[in-house]
Each structure stands twice: as C-alpha cells, then as structure tokens.
Amino acid sequence: MDTPVTVVILAAGLGTRMRSRRAKVLHRAGGKALVEHVVETALEVAPAGRIFVVVGHQAEEVRAAVTTPGVGFIEQKEQKGTGHAVLSGRAQLAGMGGYLLALYGDSPLLRPQTLRRLVETEASGDAACVLLTAMMDDPTGYGRVIRDAHGRVSAIIEQKAATPEQLAIREANMGIYCFRADLLWKHAGEIGTDNPAGEYYLTDMAGILTRAGHRVEALQLEDAREALGINTRIELAEVDRILRDRKRRELMLAGVTIESPETVIVDSGVAIGMDTVIGPFAQILGKTAIGENCRVGACSIVADSDIADGVEIGPYTIVNASVVERGAAVGPFARLRMDNHVAPGAHIGNFVELKKTRLGAGAKASHLAYLGDAEIGAGTNIGAGTITCNYDGIRKHRTTIGEGAFIGSNSTLVAPLEIGQGAYVAAGSTITDPVPPDALAFGRARQALKEDWARKRREMQKNR
Ligand code: UD1
Ligand code: MG
C-alpha cells in the first residue's frame, strides 16, 4: 500500500441508551475500553500519527483511555452529526492526503483484515469512496444503500428519512468508509442539515459524490455482526462475549488447552505459551504473559503478571502484578497481592499471602502465612502460620531472611527485622531482635508442667 491512510474514529457521542454517566466508548468489553479496541484495529492500517479520535462527551476521559502514544484528537464540542464530526477535524486532516478511513469508536468487533480489504478495494479502483455494507434480515435503524438501475450505489438514506420502498431495502450501511481524501474535502462542505434530525450526516457524501460524477462502491460484509455498534448494555455484553470467544479461539489454535472454554475469561492483551493448560472459570487479565507448559487451576485470577515456563498455579489462586519464575508453584488458595517476585522452583501453598515480597529460589511457604515487604533467601523454609508484622500503625517495615533459614511454625516476625542465613527460629516465637546467621532464636514462654493435675481434677469433680 503506497497511498497513506489516515483514520478518523468518531467517539464524541454520549450514548444515551447506555443509561450511564460515562461516555459510551469508555465502557469495556474484552478487557478494554471500546475506543481502545478500535484504535488498535486502526493501527493495522495506519501509523499512530495518522490516527485521530473525535472526542466530545467526557473528552478528557476518552483521551486518557487511549493509551497508544502518538494518536491525535479532534474536539467536537457539540454533536451535530457524523458529518459534523469529520468536518470538525478539517484543519488537522485535510492536509494529510491519501485515503481517509472513517470508523466508529463503539464498534470494537471490526477486524483488521476487513479494514485492509476496504482500503485495497479503494486503491484498486477509481471509486471516490468505498463503504462497508451488509445484507440484513432486519436493517431497522440503519441507513439503507440506494442503488441505481445499473446496480451502482447512488445514495444512503437514513431510516428516519426513508420512504416505505426504501425501508424494504435490506442492504444496510455499516457506517465505515474509505474516502479519497482530496474528493472528501473538496465536497464535504456540501453536507447540509436538511433532514428530519437536523444533523450533518456523513452518509450524505454518497449522494454528493455520485452527483458530482464520481463512483461510490460498496464492500459487503459476510456477517453484519462484525460492524455491530454498541448502543445498550445488552449489546455490550454480547460484544464482550464475542471478543472473549475470539481470544480463546486464537489461543487454542496457538496451542493452549482451555478446559470448559466458555467459562474462561482472557483479556485481549494476554499472551500464553504452548501446552499451557487453563482450568475452568480461570480469568487471565490485563497485560499478563504466561509461558509454556504452565497450568492455571480452576477459578484462579491472574492479572498483569509475568509467569515463566513450567509454573503451576493451583486452583482458587489470585496473582496480581507479580513475577513468578520458571518451575515455581503457587496455590491452591494463595494470594500474590502485588509486586512480588517468586524465584525459580519456589513454592507457595494454600492460604499464603505475599505483598511486595521476594521469595528466593526453591524457598517454601507451604501453608497459612503472611509475608509482606520481605526478602526471603533461597532454600529458606517458612513454617505454617508465620506472620511478618510489617506495619506499626504508621509505617511499613522490611523483613530480611537469609538463605537456607528455617522459620518454625506460628512465628511472629516483628519488622524491621533481619534473620541471618542458616538461622533457626523456634516454632511459636515472637522475634523482635536480629538473629545472626546459623543461630537458633526462641521467643516464647517456657513450658510449665503440673504432674497429675488432670487426674486430680477429675476426681474432685466426681466427689462433688
Ligand atoms: C450511522 C449512519 C447510518 C449507519 C449506522 C451504522 C449517519 C447519519 N448514519 O447512524 O447510516 O447505518 O451509523 O451504525 O452517519 N458521533 C460523533 N459525533 C456526532 C454524532 C455521532 O462522534 O456528532 C459518533 C457517535 O459517538 C457514534 C458514531 O458517531 O460512535 C455513530 O453515530 P450514531 O448517532 O450512532 O449514528 P447512527 O444513528 O448509528
Ligand atoms: Mg449508532
């Protein structure tokens, strides 16, 4: 493709039927704001510097939702129609030449290959505009594609302005166009407001261009659902379901096993390696990357985390913003709250919570522990019930434990605290002072013993 493509994404509307205080394009499907999906699809046909989003309602929030650097914005202060939206960008867009592709920010199902076909159709012929259409059983609400006696597109008529004969036309306008930019800008000023809504309709361009002697072509979609625009929360859920399904299929075709796939949620930004198995009801979210030969157990949630090859995540485990290295095992029923680093071969068992903690290679915390703001050396064993007391009510403090240490069950480690390598902490201890390497620390009351106490008590009660 030699001719440059500029993309303008219409996203200024509020979307009244969403019944929301948030602009429609900010709602999420497939783990992303609707507008982000469209921007990512646009990136397949144009560089970020040639992509512009028309913002109006909650312009600041919509700008913030577009995370791709370099994307431009066009302010449409008042929403006076789709034609007005494009015209609002005249100053920024008119100089860009080439082709101008107009998309909607609320249609996240559109595939990159469809956009490519649209541009290729434009490039291979002499049409001033190629528009995306589809034959629909029920085109209610859509603009109808009017063709002349030779079957050539001559106009688009909106539902509100259509005659009964025009309403019977099943070919609907999907609202996605590729224009020759020079011809668009030459004639865009001819769009008027002479219609029942009193709006500037971009659809008028079809009639305007044909009347000026240019050709307008239609590219028919096989499945109109690809251009489905979201208007209600029911459609939002439907689109979310389709996006989730696409993502799971993509992963399965790439060699990932997904058990009961219809129950599993994977965000579109997630990568998963070959021969990894994802259990039922798991959720893999955000910018997570999972390596090969891993297992993510049923009902686990992994978000924004890096999971290396061969990691086992047991069922009902939550891993958030953490790194788990090769061959480590986490869960079942564990929680890696945030900023944790689990080194190769380490093991975290049930009911263990980690926060801002580094667990060294081969270290183990197998049952019931809270490890917060801690650095734990390789090969160290953390007994069941160990708690790092990292918070004094005002500040957080660190616990450092050397390599090959052994922390007995039910230990209370009062931070700031340092425990040297190879040291032992006796079970049930409260440790407040540093423990040097290879030492044994007790921090508990000595056991008392009263011989025969229980037998005597029983006898006393019998004689009462
Ligand atoms: C539009 C088309 C219709 C087509 C349908 C497909 C027109 C006049 N009609 O109708 O032929 O069948 O899409 O879905 O174009 N927007 C702005 N600024 C505005 C108005 C709209 O940014 O001033 C944005 C909206 O946020 C929305 C998109 O443009 O994302 C479409 O606008 P909408 O009002 O939904 O157009 P439709 O009535 O669906
Ligand atoms: Mg619409």
Report on the architecture of this protein.
There is one protein chain. The chain is of the alpha/beta class and 464 residues long. Helix content is 19%, strand content 29%. It has a 16-stranded parallel β-sheet that branches. A nine-stranded parallel β-sheet has the order 14-17-20-23-26-28-30-33-36, with no helix packed on it. Strands 5-4-1-6-10-7-11 form a seven-stranded mixed β-sheet. Helix 2 links the parallel strand 4 and strand 5. The model has no long low-confidence stretch (mean pLDDT 96). The site of uridine-diphosphate-N-acetylglucosamine has 27 residues, from strand 1, helix 3 and strand 10.
**Count of helix runs:** 10
Task: Tell me what the CATH architecture of the largest domain is.
Answer: Alpha-Beta Complex
Query: Considering DSSP H and I runs of 4 or more, what fraction of the residues is helical?
Result: 10-25%
Low-pLDDT runs:
none
Set down the secondary structure blueprint.
Elements: E1 5-11, E2 28-29, E3 32-33, H1 34-42, E4 51-55, H2 59-65, E5 72-75, H3 82-87, H4 90-93, E6 99-104, H5 112-124, E7 129-135, E8 144-147, E9 153-157, H6 164-167, E10 171-180, H7 181-187, H8 204-211, E11 216-220, H9 233-253, E12 257-258, E13 265-266, E14 271-272, E15 277-278, E16 283-285, E17 289-290, E18 295-296, E19 301-303, E20 306-307, E21 312-313, E22 318-320, E23 323-324, E24 329-330, E25 335-336, E26 341-342, E27 347-355, E28 358-359, E29 364-372, E30 374-376, E31 381-382, E32 387-389, E33 399-401, E34 406-407, E35 412-414, E36 417-419, E37 424-425, E38 430-431, E39 440-441, H10 453-462
Parallel strand pairs: 1-4, 1-6, 4-5, 7-11, 12-15, 13-16, 14-17, 15-18, 16-19, 17-20, 18-21, 19-22, 20-23, 21-24, 22-25, 23-26, 24-27, 25-27, 26-28, 27-29, 28-30, 29-31, 30-33, 31-34, 32-35, 33-36, 34-37, 35-38, 37-39
Antiparallel strand pairs: 2-3, 6-10, 7-10, 8-9
The site of magnesium ion (MG) has 2 residues, from loops.
